Amino acid sequence: MTLEHSRRWCANVMREHAKSFYLSTRILPRAKRHAVEALYGLFRTADDLADEPGPPDDQRLAALDETMEQVERAADGATGDAPWFAAVADAFARFPIDRRDVLRLIEACRGDVVPAALHTMDDLYAYSACVAGTVGRASMAILGAADEDSLVRGERLGVAMQYTNVLRDVEEDRLRGRSYLPFEDFPGEPVSSVMRQVALHARAYYLEAPVLAGRVPNDGSRAALLMTADIYQAILDRLERRAFDPTLGRAYVPQTEKLRRALACLVQSYVGFATIK
Hints:
By secondary structure, the chain is an all-alpha fold. The chain is 70% helix and 0% strand. It contains 13 helices and no strands. Helix 3 packs antiparallel against helix 7, helix 4 (57-75) packs across helix 5 (85-94) and helix 8 (148-168) packs antiparallel against helix 10 (191-206). The chain is globular, with a radius of gyration of 18 Å.
């Protein structure tokens, strides 16, 4: 694929599968938007290889190994034939994205092929740091805060979003024979109580969003970061209003509420960040 075709492919993947992310990234400068879309296209490909029904496990693992090899080639400026390749190679060339973060996520997807049960909060954090904290780190490198403290805080923000995903998908995961809740740390507690504990940790990590927003340029990056975190926190709000009852299915944020929150974050991005360090 040409670079333009690869970018378009990645943008279409994000538009189809990550509507909240797609909405919040529309206000980014073009180069940053293309880079975020490129990484999403790659990460979604790896996630689908691990999770989608079809090929046997050995073929999934081989495909993920090939994906990791192509990431190395993209980071080195070589050539590759994956639909996301040209866009990802361009992102590596333009921004200080650490390839180790990208590879760490794909390695975590290999673990999802035959997932191990998570028993404790430490287990959940380690898993979430691999599959989503890495996204937070790479995103901060793109948005404009690539110092180590910002990368660590970006990891925690990514973990908060993964915790939210886990809480949103408890019933779906149960039906697939998976469990990501740390029951061992809360013996005898009902599912709803364990979910509430995970939500408390997520809310603490979401506090990184305004700190990080104060560290990135106000070129749309600040508002995009705030929007993404705020819309994800709205999922937690809806789960809490339902008393964390997993049998009620996925919690969705209506499009009208997303737009209202996005507008509020856009206004917020111009106010109150001068003294944040």
